[in-house]
Amino acid sequence: METTKIKKMMKIVENALTAASFSEVGQNAHSLLRESRRVLLGLKAGQIDPRTLKYALNSAKRIDANIDILYVTGRGGGNKSANDPLLAPFESELAAAKIPYRVIYRSGCLKEHIIEYSNSEKEILFAVIESPATLDDDCTKHDKVLAELWRNLQCPLVVVMDGARA
């Protein structure tokens, strides 16, 4: 009987200390939870569709998640987004909606980078892409190896397509 009371008191003290540490740092549990929930937005340079951006933004709002933008240029391409007039306004929209985000620049194969990134970042809830047709551009791995890795992707994949192309 005494052990149960002591355990309950220890839990109360633990909760109080946790709450105090959050208030000292200026954080709350909500912000910590949000940091651990991420949507991966895979974009291929020069092939960005506004509907895909809107889907990712609305999804992040709805589930209270951050967005990781994986921006992939072709092999030998620079890591700058200057060629994509849609990316800067999208970043402004994210800021206005108070959705934390980060942009990760890569060059090469979008599919390879989505696999690599989602396998290394365990907080990714799902990945959003515009078109499966652009996924294999600039890929160097053997088709069978890449296909197997793709089947074992660590998160769900959402493909946003034009209804006429679907």
Q: H/E element string?
A: HHEHEHEHEHE
For the record, the CATH class of the largest domain is Alpha Beta
* Strand residue content: 15-25%
- The neighbouring-strand order within the major sheet is 3-2-1-4-5
The separation of the N and C termini measures 65 Å
What is the average of the pLDDT values? 79
**What is the CATH topology classification name of the largest domain?**
Rossmann fold
- The geometry reads as elongated
CATH architecture of the largest domain: 3-Layer(aba) Sandwich
Our Rg estimate from Cα atoms comes to: 20 Å
The proportion of residues forming helix, as a percent range, comes to 40-55%
Largest sheet: 5 strands, parallel
Helix segment tally: 6
The count of β-strands is 5
Label the structural class: alpha/beta
Uncertain ranges: 30-34
Secondary structure: elements and pairs:
Layout: H1 2-25, H2 29-35, E1 38-44, H3 50-63, E2 66-73, H4 87-96, E3 101-107, H5 110-120, E4 124-129, H6 143-151, E5 157-159
Parallel strand pairs: 1-2, 1-4, 2-3, 4-5
